[in-house]
Structure formats: C-alpha cells, structure tokens
Amino acid sequence: MDKIIKQIPNKIEYTKYKLSNGLTIVLVPDTKLLSVLVNLYIKVGSQYEPAHISGISHLLEHMSFKGTKNHPTNLELVTPLDNIGSSYNAGTGYELTQYFVRCGFQYIDTALNFISDIFQNSIFPEPEFHKEKGVVLEEIHMYEDESRTKVEDDFLKLIYGNQGAGRSIAGSEQTVKNITHKELLNYYRKYYNAKNAYLFIAGNFDPIQTRKLIAKYFNTAKSTHSFPYPKTKILQKRPKLSLTYKDNKETHFILGFHGYPFFDETNYALHILETILSGGFTSRLFQLVREKLGGAYYIYSDNWLFFDRGIFIIRGGIDSQRAELIFSEIIKEIKTLKDKPLTNQELQKAKNYIIGKLFIKMDQPYYLYHYLTQPILYNHPIITPRQTIEKITKITPKDIQLLAQKIFRKNNANLAIVSSIKNKSPFNKVLNSL
Q1: Is 146 a residue of the active site?
Q2: Torsion angle, CA of 256/260/262/264, rounded to 10 degrees?
Q3: Residues linked to residue 25 through DSSP beta bridges, in sequence order
Q4: Which of 76, 142, 301, 418 could bridge to 151 as Cys pair (CB 3.0-4.6 Å)?
Q5: pLDDT confidence of residue 235
Q6: CA 38/CA 210 separation, integer angstroms
Q7: What confidence score (pLDDT) does residue 227 get?
Q8: Does 225 score more than 80 pLDDT?
Q9: Is residue 1's pLDDT more than 70?
Q10: Distances, alpha carbon 27 to alpha carbons 76, 178, 214, 377, in Å
C-alpha cells in the first residue's frame, strides 16, 4: 500500500499573488489540457444576508448577466462566449458566489474580459430587475414543488433556525418581492470589490501573458475592504423533528447531526463513516434499506462541510406505508455503529474504496485545482491528496466507534420529513430511541 500511496501527488504546482487593489490571483497551469478555466469567487453568500433581504446574493448573481457598461444587454454580453463554444455559468452558495468560464486555451482573453466585465461593470437595468424577480420566484416555487429540495430547505431551517444558515439560498417569496433596486445596487457596491474576491485560473495558459491580461482587466477593480464572517450558532439541546405534509407517494427525509467545520481533522474519520454507510452497493444503508427491505430507490449518507460548521446526514426517499419501520431499522444500524466496533476487514474495505475513488478522480481535468480553493479562500494550509490518504490510513476501528458515539447522540439529532403521513409521533418515538 505504501508504494501505491507514493504515486499520489504530494505537491500541487500553483502561483499566488495579489494585485495592488487587493484582488487575490491563483494560477494553476497544466499544459496537458486543451482548455482553461477562469473562476472568480466573491466571499459573500446567503449565510451573511440580513433576514429582510434574504435571497439578495442569488438575485444579484442572476442580475449580473443582464448587461454591463461595455455590453448593455444580456445578448451582447454572452454572445462572445457562445461564439467560442465555452461553458459558463454562476452559482450562489451559503458562503460564496462564483462566476466561471471554461473554454479553449486560445480564448483566455475572451474569458477574462467577460469575468472582469460582470465583476466591475454590471449595470442592473431596473426593468430587468423587476422581470428577473419573477424568474427567481418561479425558481422558489419549483423548489417548493420538488420534495427532495423542499426537505433540504426544511432540514436547514430545523437545524439552524432563524439565522442565515437556516434560510434558503434563493430566499423566500416575501423577501425576494420586497428587495428594492437600491438595495441590490448597494449590496453589489459593498461586496463586489477586489479585496473580497479571488480569481483562480487553471488549465493550459501562458503564465507571463496571463499576468499581463489580468493586469489589463482587473487592475482597475475597485477596492474597499474585506469583511468579517460571523459564525453560525449551534444551540441544540434536544432532538428536533419537522414534518411537512405533501401528497407524495414517497416519504423524503433527512436525518442530520451537527458535525465539524471544513478543516477539522475529524472529517477524515467521518469520510470513512460515510463510506461504511453508503460507499457503493455493498454499503450498510444500501444493503439494509434497498436490498433487504426493498424500501427505497435512493438512500445515502453525506458530510456537508462549511467554513464554520458541518452536518453529517442520512437521507432517502422511502416507502410511505413502511416509513416508520424503515426509519426504525436505520436507527438500529446507527446504534450498531455506536455499540460495536468495525472489523478490520470492513474498515480496510472502506479505506480501499476511498483510495480507489481518489485514483479515478485524479484522472479528471482540474481535480487537483479543487484541493486549493477552500484553503486559499480561508487562509488554511493546503492538504495534498497524498496527505489526505495518509491521514485516512491511520484511522482505527476504535476511532470510528468513538466518533459514532459522539456524532449519533439523541440531543444532536435533527429529522426533516416531507410526506403524505400526517402523524409525527411514531418518528419522534424512534428518534428518541437513539
């Protein structure tokens, strides 16, 4: 195994520097590729929004595509990107807003021009603002209608309550309707500034020429200041449950436990625990719920990681007529992990699974680049793929058992359900049996 681990990269080549206005630049060259990825991160997301303008980061992201001083309409703005066959989009998260272009390496000038333009020169025409609100409202309605998305929003509200981390990224119908054009402009001017942004470029590019292009397009970016990021408060003292009635044929649920922030070392053991529960067809949840009980199409665990918090979840869509039984069996499986340590064989199988998946991912373009983003964005040491595997290989069966006992506590449990079932009492009873 040591010989295999040594084949995994233990160093990632990159250059990091800042422009005079404070914009952080990260260059990750890879001449084996034929494309280049230009990715701009702005350190603002729904988690940091005041309650009365919840959803404004997402609305602002939509509006950034509505025209700039140089390209006053959406059509004029995006036509150069379509003309070169690029992939481009944006996304709003809880902590970050992202804009990216991926294109042939020969078109890096076009990609940088576009990203810099929407970052610095967006004009947010007021008629488009009111029209785009309607688009976002329909997006919210779509999420409300989709039970798998609805249960996620319900779960986050349940676990975090009335703070940014507990509200939907898209906002609510009421808050989106009430956001004013002036509030959007002020929000843009405040957060879309050079000191609050990071520009990552990865793929096939000439570093010297690219530095000149970056200076050309971004040296004029306005610079005000960066911002403190308040941490989400974790105040839970008892198990919590929410049940939303929906005339579904399937019961969708998320069972979640407070975990650890993105950079916490405990997450290596949690990765193994996640793999034990849902790493492939032979995993415990798949064998129990799908193969033995025949009670679900999708069932899995996951570890959601954020800068200031983490959540370990089990989620699925299960047979409503047998929902109580199936959920009870899931709880029994969790209690088994607390009561009985893994065999060395099962633990090694999980480690092999993780290493095997890493080898496959390493063949994907830009995979190494993702090892840099979070550490650089949050000023944390970079952990290489080899270091990750070395940490995982040291974990023992006792480590997993102690972690299960710490995570899977009754007073750390949160269960959100969207179902045609109306009575929550049976689920409360099962939840309290942890």
Answers
A1: no
A2: -150
A3: 17, 199
A4: 418
A5: 86
A6: 11
A7: 76
A8: no
A9: no
A10: 29, 40, 11, 14
Alpha-carbon dihedral 36, 41, 45, 50, rounded to 10 degrees: -150
Q: Which two tokens stand for residue 188?
A: 């843009």
Compute the distance between CA of residue 304 and CA of residue 263 in angstroms, rounded to an integer. 12
Q: How far from the centroid of its chain's Cα atoms is residue 157's Cα? A: 17
**What pLDDT, on a 0 to 100 scale, did the predictor assign at position 127?**
96
Backbone CA torsion sign across 28, 207, 119, 378: positive
* Integer Cα distance of 298 and 285 in angstroms: 10
Q: In whole angstroms, what is the distance from residue 19 CA to residue 433 CA?
A: 56
What confidence category does residue 216 fall into, taking pLDDT thresholds of 50, 70 and 90?
very high
- DSSP tag of 320: G
CB atoms within 10 A of CB 351: 19
pLDDT tens, residue by residue, 79-98: 999 999 999 999 999 999 99
Question: Measuring CA to CA, which residue among 258, 296, 273, 278 is closest to residue 414?
Answer: 258
- What does the block give as tokens for 260? 């650890």
Distance CA 314, CA 334 (A): 10
Q: Which of 49, 61, 128, 329 is catalytic?
A: 61
